Structure prediction request, 159 residues.
Amino acid sequence: MKLTKGRPALAATAWLALALRATAATITVDSTADDLDQGPNGNCTLREAVVAANTDSPVDGCAAGSGADVIQLPPGTYVLTIPGTSEHGEAGTLLLTSEITIDGAGTDATVVTAADLGDSLVTLPYISSGNPTVTIERLTIASENRKSSWGIVDSGLAS
Prediction:
């Protein structure tokens, strides 16, 4: 096989892309519950998956994150119900503090929303000021709280 001038560089680029992708974790959510506050029960919720991705540690039934992670959301309605605030998204707002892709099963099939929590307004998702790359695809973000409008809160870093 004859190598031309551009092929070694192309091969090196492809290898590097595969090596970088290999360090990412895919975390598959298997429950529509919002139950991180109830202790380990063997499932993997959206909130638990976000915390696992942020901390690169396993959380309940969720695999540990590793670098830029993909959170797979199967069809369903994911209602956030845990009030409060936290450093890694354990309560209230889902804090996306690392490179994360949240991938649903389609905008009609996967819905992420939050119940009306009174004074503890849940904002989904909040992209931290650490400037991570966040991709949200093939899902709908909707509010059950008719008193306020929210969805994606930008801390001034989105483009």
Remarks:
- The first strand starts at residue 26 and ends at 28.
- Residues 1-21, 118-124 have pLDDT under 50 and may be disordered.
- The radius of gyration is 18 Å.
